[in-house]
Amino acid sequence: MTAAPATATPELHPVLAEVTERVVARSATTRSAYLERIRSAAAQRPAGPGRADLGCANLAHGTAACGPDKLTLTASPARNLAIVTAYNDMLSAHQPFETFPALIKRAARDAGGVAQVAGGVPAMCDGITQGRAGMELSLFSRDVIAMSTAVALSHDMFDAAVLLGVCDKIVPGLVIGALSFGHLPVLLAPAGPMTSGLPNKEKARVRQAFAAGEAGRDELLDAESRSYHGPGTCTFFGTANSNQLLMEVMGLHLPGSSFVNPGTALRDALTAETTRRALAAAGDPSRAMGEIVDEKAVLNGVVALLATGGSTNHTMHLVAMAAAAGVALTWDDFADLSAVVPLLARIYPNGSADVNHFRAAGGLQVLIRELHTAGLLHDDVRTVDGPGLARYTREPFLDGDSLVWHEGPAESLDKSVLRGVADPFAPDGGLRVLHGNLGVSVVKTSAVEPDHRLVEAPAAVFDDQADLLAAFEAGELDGRDLVAVVRHQGPRANGMPELHKLTPALGVLQDRGQRVALVTDGRMSGASGKVPAALHVTPEAARGGPLQKVRDGDPIRLDTLNGTLSLLVDADEFDAREPALPAGPSGPTFGTGRELFAAFRAAVGPADRGASVTL
């Protein structure tokens, strides 16, 4: 089923118009300063290729090992493309990138240009470091990646760039780093999701059975291995796949390229075309990355995230990426848009389908068409495919050896996975911002059943997730309603680790009929599940936030319906309390490289400003 392109631009929804107006006004100084910087950088470049004003010794160093491309780089005006890669072969999502540089170099030569691997960036996996000391490096790796990207591009050899990355901190880090070279055209080339494995509902069942002591380690490992079974991104809708959605809706991917599986002819054709587009854009100031990532593109990303119930991590990553382009985005912008953006997708953990099912149902083409028609997306944006977001309702195909685009489905092909604005899964977005006397926090509501979206219960306070799990295993949390408070998990305290290991245990308690919620200054990401969880509580305990004064038994009300997070304790009594220090080490810790990041912990900003060290 196909449809004609959406040619008419619908009237913008009044809330999106109002939020856009205030973001533009709020960003006036920072955005104009950013644009002045990148336009000045573009004006200072030579008329020919970017390396044209390098000294002979500089150029000799940059071309010494270039083999067949050496003469092209030294004696011709051909454009040179930087490849910045997050390849490693430990992580399924990044393993496919092993073959991308050779493919990109061939495509560049065919287009009359050259491509060089400018540098590599680290890529760590929260799924591996979950519950381990290494998780405390995870969020900070985003800033390391941003700085590594800048180092890679700092050689003044390049006219454009292609970024190879997929997962949690990798894509935001690549984008932040590349925006410091926003005068260059930059495209991202995704690797795509692995094919579907064990159904997500069965995986979740085994995890919870293991947490309850009803399944052994062998059964758990078998289920996990059948879920995560081959090259490509994990297929659930966590931060990695939320990244891909954002890059496409923000116009930094080619249309329809985000969820094409690795190792396919279509994937290779899209990568080659990404190379050609990057080289073709070189020298055109209007196609520079910093011109594309503006206020409207950022807000398009927010809307798409809300409409799909994407990762809560992006309440930090999107804020940080926006700031790198001079755009001042706040959690209140998320909250106001969430009130009017309908939830149109059910992808695990918000449903049983994975991203392959989402793509088959019509995917981003249907999502963008529906949101655009409802006036909930800005069409008047620049993209790497050309002007106008309506171009992204098209889907790529191979016609023999040629890559072509056709209009995607006019409507969802599976309404259990993807719906239209007229018949959404919920009338509002899958993320909420909560305000109250405990601070400001975010909650992913799309996976939480309606009767669990308001919980009022006594606090059970912990300073480490391991302590909560120990209490669960000892039966200390059985038979009572509770709001688990896990504090001293913010960016300044210990790097803000994700707390995924809490989900199965809290899910068991909820399934037993207990009223359960989680409140933490840590993270849970796109894997946030069926238990309501107020995350990223700001200010965090380590910054003197109210969480440091909460005591066991204090009544807490987590109300996602009205957007509040409240401690129901007399204000004078609460103010008179002494703050509780963490039970464990309160200073910088050592081991697994954590001592190297002490300066990051000291310098990091709060979660609602992106939890950034570099911005």
Automatic annotation (TrEMBL):
Task: Output the Gene Ontology terms for molecular function.
Answer: phosphogluconate dehydratase activity
How, per the record, is the cofactor bound? Binds 1 [4Fe-4S] cluster.
Q: Which Pfam families match?
A: ILV_EDD_C, ILVD_EDD_N
Metabolic or biological pathway: Carbohydrate metabolism; Entner-Doudoroff pathway
Cross-referenced InterPro entries, in alphabetical order? Answer: 6-phosphgluc_deHydtase (IPR004786), Dihydro-acid_dehy_C (IPR042096), DiOHA_6PGluconate_deHydtase_CS (IPR020558), ILV_EDD_C (IPR056740), ILV_EDD_N (IPR000581), IlvD/EDD_N (IPR037237)
Q: Which domain of life is it from?
A: Bacteria
Q: Which UniProt keywords apply?
A: 2Fe-2S, 4Fe-4S, Amino-acid biosynthesis, Branched-chain amino acid biosynthesis, Carbohydrate metabolism, Gluconate utilization, Iron, Iron-sulfur, Lyase, Metal-binding
Q: Does the keyword Nuclease apply?
A: no
What residues does the Dihydroxy-acid/6-phosphogluconate dehydratase N-terminal domain cover? 81-390
Which residue ranges does the record assign to the Dihydroxy-acid/6-phosphogluconate dehydratase C-terminal domain? 417-611
Residues annotated to bind [4Fe-4S] cluster? 167, 234
**Required cofactor names:** [4Fe-4S] cluster
Task: State the top-level EC class.
Answer: lyase
UniProt keyword Iron-sulfur, yes or no? yes
E.C. numbers: 4.2.1.12
Give me the reactions it catalyses: 6-phospho-D-gluconate = 2-dehydro-3-deoxy-6-phospho-D-gluconate + H2O
Q: What role does it play? A: Catalyzes the dehydration of 6-phospho-D-gluconate to 2-dehydro-3-deoxy-6-phospho-D-gluconate.
Q: Which family does it belong to?
A: Belongs to the IlvD/Edd family.
**Protein name listed in UniProt:** Phosphogluconate dehydratase
Gene of this entry: edd
